[in-house]
């Protein structure tokens, strides 16, 4: 859950998000080193009146500042590509959920069950219970079992939407007439919040996403209760 004045990412709740955080720190350190070096060179050139005649025309230094950036780009590209392929990897999901975007709410269908689906609307501010978050709570949460691969099929009924939950490292566009898929594994129990991340009309800011990860036995109890109520 994000909080005011937060500078970094939310705490990771999935293995992919942990990899993304590590890659962010890796790339940021490279940026810091380059920025420090450039700042030092600028200050040195501005503050000194001396001139080194060996760097006015030097093939050696030109070779260095051509090869070094290429090496740095490779050091950034290789882990980036690795994570990109990891994010697309979907191996034997234990549960499949279809998330459908509407103006302006989400509907969820648990396709492994015969009749388990519901609409998820934002709870108005005046109806919030104590401890709930304004503009983020929904009347029905998407409940998933923790430590289990979950596949999410994402589409939309009317306009473009985007199903995004930062803590889980998930963001997938919902396109009318097209079925996109993504996957995640919730590594710990908890409630994780997201929002539609594609401008979709007047109430774009009011269609939150709430994913609740629970132990498997609690998920089975919840699904049985939902099927009884259906």
UniProtKB/TrEMBL annotation:
Q: Which CDD domains match?
A: CcO_II_C
Please state what the protein is called: Cytochrome c oxidase subunit 2
Which Pfam families does UniProt cross-reference here? COX2, COX2_TM
Please list the cofactors this protein needs: Cu cation
InterPro entries attached to this UniProt entry: CcO_II, CcO_II-like_C, CcO_II_C, Copper_CuA, Cupredoxin, Cyt_c_oxidase_su2, Cyt_c_oxidase_su2_TM_dom, Cyt_c_oxidase_su2_TM_sf
What is one process in the GO biological process aspect for this record? ATP synthesis coupled electron transport
Q: Where in the cell is it found?
A: Mitochondrion inner membrane
Entry's Gene Ontology cellular component terms: mitochondrial inner membrane
- Family membership: Belongs to the cytochrome c oxidase subunit 2 family.
Q: Where is the signal peptide?
A: none
Q: Which residues form the Cytochrome oxidase subunit II transmembrane region profile domain?
A: 1-91
Stated membrane topology is: Multi-pass membrane protein
Chain segments annotated as transmembrane: 27-51, 63-85
UniProt keywords (A-Z) are: Copper, Electron transport, Magnesium, Membrane, Metal-binding, Mitochondrion, Mitochondrion inner membrane, Respiratory chain, Translocase, Transmembrane, Transmembrane helix, Transport
Any note on cofactor binding? Binds a copper A center.
Q: Which reaction does it catalyse?
A: 4 Fe(II)-[cytochrome c] + O2 + 8 H(+)(in) = 4 Fe(III)-[cytochrome c] + 2 H2O + 4 H(+)(out)
Q: Which GO terms describe its molecular function?
A: copper ion binding; cytochrome-c oxidase activity; oxidoreductase activity
Give a short account of what the protein does.
Answer: Component of the cytochrome c oxidase, the last enzyme in the mitochondrial electron transport chain which drives oxidative phosphorylation. The respiratory chain contains 3 multisubunit complexes succinate dehydrogenase (complex II, CII), ubiquinol-cytochrome c oxidoreductase (cytochrome b-c1 complex, complex III, CIII) and cytochrome c oxidase (complex IV, CIV), that cooperate to transfer electrons derived from NADH and succinate to molecular oxygen, creating an electrochemical gradient over the inner membrane that drives transmembrane transport and the ATP synthase.
Chain ranges of the Cytochrome oxidase subunit II copper A binding domain: 92-225
Please give the chief subcellular localization of this protein: mitochondrion
What PANTHER family is this protein classified in?
Answer: CYTOCHROME C OXIDASE SUBUNIT 2, CYTOCHROME C OXIDASE, SUBUNIT II
């Amino acid at each position: 859950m994000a909080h005011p004045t937060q500078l970094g990412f939310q705490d990771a709740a999935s293995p992919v998000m942990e990899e993304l955080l590590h890659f962010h720190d890796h790339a940021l350190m490279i940026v810091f080193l380059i920025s420090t070096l450039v700042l030092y060179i600028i200050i040195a050139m501005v503050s000194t009146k001396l001139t080194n005649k060996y760097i006015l025309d030097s093939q050696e230094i030109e070779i260095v500042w051509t090869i070094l950036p290429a090496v740095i780009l490779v050091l950034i590209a290789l882990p980036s590509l690795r994570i990109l392929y990891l994010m697309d990897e979907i191996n034997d999901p234990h549960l499949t959920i279809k998330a459908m975007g509407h103006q302006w709410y989400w509907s969820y269908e648990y396709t492994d069950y015969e009749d388990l689906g519901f609409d998820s609307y934002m709870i108005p501010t005046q109806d919030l219970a104590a401890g709930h978050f304004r503009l983020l709570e929904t009347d029905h949460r998407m409940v998933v079992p923790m430590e289990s691969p979950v596949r999410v099929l994402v589409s939309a009924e009317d306009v473009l939407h985007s199903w995004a939950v930062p803590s889980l490292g998930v963001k997938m566009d919902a396109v009318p007439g097209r079925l996109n898929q993504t996957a995640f594994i919730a590594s710990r129990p908890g409630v994780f919040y997201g929002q539609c991340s594609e401008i979709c009309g007047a109430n774009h800011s009011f269609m939150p996403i709430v994913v609740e990860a629970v132990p498997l036995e609690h998920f089975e109890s919840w699904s049985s209760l939902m099927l009884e109520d259906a």
